[in-house]
Amino acid sequence: MLFSIQSRGSGVRPINFACGFVIMVEVENPGTKEVSSLMRNVADGSYVIPYFQRGFEWEPSMVSELLQNYYTGLLLFWDLDDENAAAEHWDPVWGASASDEPQKAILDGQQRLSSLYYAIHNPERKFPNRKSYYVFYVNLVEAFNEEYEDAVTYSWNTKNYDSWTDLRSNRDQWIETGEVPLCILSASDPDDPNDRYIDSDEFEEWAQRFVKEREGDLPDVSAFDVYKLFNGILSYDFVVYPLGSDRSMPDICNIFAKVNDTGMKLSTFDLMNAFLYPHGVNLRKELWENLGNESLTRIWTRTC
User: Beta-carbon neighbour count of residue 164 at 10 Å?
Assistant: First the structure.
């Protein structure tokens, strides 16, 4: 589970991306980065999506599974120099704002980072390929009883967006259900906007109430254990691997195509887009997004 298992980095130079493709490098080294730092970089537009990639396509259930899973995998980035950063190659992560000065392109990890951002930051944007706003929750009763398969849930609303202000007003309901919105992790202390909500007096008082009122449903836990659970999500380490800014666009597109050969399979269109992009042919921008035909879009979604 993301808030119970800590990732560990490796100093080994060859990196295997589970699809059998190994990148041998001489300079680039893996490291680790906490979820809190990753989310800040997504939110401020430092991390971007190359235009040769498709968008955020995971289902809501897959977002829950990411937070419940023991293995979160490696994140692969490409460091952008000033020339590439200024080029029109980039999209923000789903729900985040674009930046004029992106720092890194996400080559492997878009679905995971987009999922975390949507769950933690609760952007005012409907879930991709859905007509509803989604809110993700941690069920503390399930989590503390180590029933991880049901520990992350979600709700949806087809008409209204539930802001943090709306969700925060239902703190009594959090105690009744045991379900706390994950966007609590991006919220600020109501008395000091520079501090986190989970560090606030209000949250501490709520956690004490929760532990007392749900005592019969919980093992021996304290309000501080509730804090540690939430803080553990933000301090969870992902292994990150940066490719140097000196790599060429054809090299990057080739790596992207091979790395993404597993997981959500690349369609023929995706592969063609990745291979033709370095040669100035942008199928996604010049062809697909200009079709303006919803019927064709639905057919493509069903068949790919």
Answer: 17
Of the candidates 103, 110, 102, 149, the residue with the CA atom closest to the CA atom of residue 128: 110
What dihedral angle (degrees, nearest 10) is formed by the CA atoms of 42, 48, 53, 57?
20
CB-CB contact of 28 with 35 (8 Å): no
Which H or E run includes 179?
Answer: strand 179-181
What length is written for the chain? Answer: 304
Q: Which residue's entry shows tokens 């674009």?
A: 98
CA-to-CA separations, 33 to 28, 39, 101, 154, 238, in angstroms, rounded = 15, 10, 20, 26, 5
Contact 37, 267 (CB under 8 A): no
Tens of pLDDT along 210-266? 999 999 999 999 999 999 999 999 999 999 999 999 988 888 888 877 776 654 444
pLDDT in tens, 67-92: 987 568 889 999 999 998 988 679 99
Cα pseudo-dihedral 301, 18, 272, 254, rounded to 10: 150
Per DSSP, helices labelled H in 133-248 are 140-144, 164-168, 171-177, 201-213, 223-234
Q: Tell me which residue of 126, 170, 134 sits closest to 152, measured CA to CA.
A: 134
Residues linked to residue 240 through DSSP beta bridges, in sequence order: 31, 75
- Any idea which residue has 């980035």 for tokens? 77
For residue 47 the two structure tokens come to 């991390």
Burial (CB count <10 Å: 0-12, 13-18, 19+), residue 8: exposed
Give the residue carrying structure tokens 């590439």: 84
Strands 47-50 and 104-108, how do they pair? parallel
- The token pair at 97 is 């704002």
